[in-house]
Amino acid sequence: MGDKTAKSVRLGLPVGSLETSTFELLERAGWIVHKRERSYYPSINDPEINAILLRPQEMSRYVEAGILDAGLTGKDWVAENESDVVVIADLIYSKQLLAPVRWVLAVPEDSPVKNVQDLQGKRIATELVGVVKRYLEKNGVDAKVEFSWGATEVKANEFVDAIVDVTETGSSIRANKLRVIDTIMSSNTQLIASKKAAADSWKRNKLETLALMLKGAIMAREKVGLKMNVPELKVDEISNKLPALRRPTISHLAEPGWVAIEVIIDENEARHIIPELKRLGAEGIIEYPLNKVIP
């Protein structure tokens, strides 16, 4: 029998659009999640975490109530629910990109609406009803806000005067021939905790450890490591070409007159830097992927 007194954190994981990217990120951070068929209780390779799958839209309500100790959800849904929770960490990743998403107010390209004030008395469709109502109130606009169950972009051309929808790249907005007139809010994934869990030193430490490793995995997704052998006479010249989190690591080789240099760089810089390093005299250049970068 297991130890019934063992401590654990009850953690909500998102289903839907964030599910795949969250599971991949957790795996890079060291936590492997396995979904069970027709079950909302996945297994995870950590006896101190009990995971449950929930939609991000409702996660913060159950965290605030203390039914969950913590959860991974969007800042937008915490705002929508006006949940009183503790933010352990902001985690800048989404379905496609390592960047915040935006909730935008958009109208058809040929609409006469130029700004939010032009929506007085009009109809707006969105999933983020509460946030949009508060936004309109702040701007002194009285408009009807109705909940959208999906395919929100399509509704702007026939059913409503405007929409508020989430976008990462803006491609869906453009594809549906819509024009953005304002950004309501930006959002990113957050690791949130109940006040009770955050006040528990063991649970707080566990969640902060999880946050540290997730942040390291996020940082590593856009970086690579470089190793190379360099003539000692070229060390200063080559080091000056290398962007790094700190100074590059330099170690002497058995062969006189040569050193090894190791550095972490942005992945999109590698294709420009490697040929230049080669021209400067670097040899045996190796590029390798990273799982985590802890600054």
Summarize this structure briefly.
By secondary structure, the protein is of the alpha/beta class. The chain folds into three domains: 9-98 and 189-220, Periplasmic binding protein-like II (D-Maltodextrin-Binding Protein, domain 2); 101-187, Periplasmic binding protein-like II (D-Maltodextrin-Binding Protein, domain 2, 3-Layer(aba) Sandwich), CATH 3.40.190.10; 223-289, Alpha-Beta Plaits (2-Layer Sandwich), CATH 3.30.70. 30% of the residues lie in helices and 32% in strands.
Give a verbal description of the structure.
With 295 residues, the protein is an alpha/beta fold. It folds into three domains: 122 residues, D-Maltodextrin-Binding Protein, domain 2 (3-Layer(aba) Sandwich), CATH 3.40.190.10; 87 residues, Periplasmic binding protein-like II (D-Maltodextrin-Binding Protein, domain 2, 3-Layer(aba) Sandwich); 67 residues, 2-Layer Sandwich (Alpha-Beta Plaits). It contains ten helices and 16 strands. The strands form four sheets. The chain has a five-stranded mixed β-sheet, with helices on both faces. A five-stranded mixed β-sheet has the order 9-8-10-7-11. A hairpin with an 8-residue loop joins strand 2 and strand 3. Helix 1 crosses helix 8 and helix 2 packs across helix 3. The longest helix has 20 residues. The protein is globular, with a radius of gyration of 24 Å. The protein starts with 8 loop residues before the first strand and ends in a 6-residue tail after the last strand. The relative contact order is 0.15. The N terminus is likely disordered.
